[in-house]
Write a structure and sequence with these properties.
Length: about 150
């Protein structure tokens, strides 16, 4: 089955996720493996893949990448992934503080609503359990909707 390439909005969502992971200049082994595995298996175009590899060596500004996300769904997905990466043992206030310290544009009222709404993500508790058991790689593999396929 032929997969459609990742849309420009979704591509920038992934670039923002990568930038978020790199913003503190320390990336865990699990996060490195996760990012490399998505580069190897996702349905990125060759140009998108080259860009993401370059981003891994020259991290981008997360706010700039986020501002290029045009789809509301992709913005919501970014907030969920950022919340999971800023796990803080499930403490939502600490998560949000960690996220906002890295993605200042999420203070803007319309964007802040997306971040606050990610508190209600139906699978968030499951994400936390998987994250606790397997790190970021386990989180990204569960549930299926988190996969990079179309």
């Amino acid at each position: 089955m032929l997969q459609r390439p990742i849309s420009e909005s979704e591509f920038y969502m992934w670039r923002a996720v990568f930038a978020f992971a790199f913003v503190d200049n320390s990336l865990s082994i699990e996060e490195q493996e996760l990012l490399k595995s998505y580069l190897a298996t996702a349905h990125f175009t060759a140009d998108q893949r080259r860009t993401l590899f370059a981003d891994m060596h020259n991290p981008q500004d997360v706010v700039e990448m986020y501002r290029h996300i045009t789809s509301v769904k992709d913005k919501e997905r970014f907030c969920i992934l950022a919340r999971a990466m800023a796990w803080c043992e499930g403490h939502v206030d600490r998560q949000e503080a960690a996220i906002l310290s890295k993605v200042s544009c999420l203070y803007e009222p319309e964007e802040n609503i997306r971040l606050l709404n990610s508190r209600k993500e139906a699978h968030l508790y499951d994400y936390y359990q998987h994250y606790a058991k397997a790190g970021v790689r386990g989180l990204m593999g569960y549930p299926h909707q988190m996969a990079l396929s179309a």
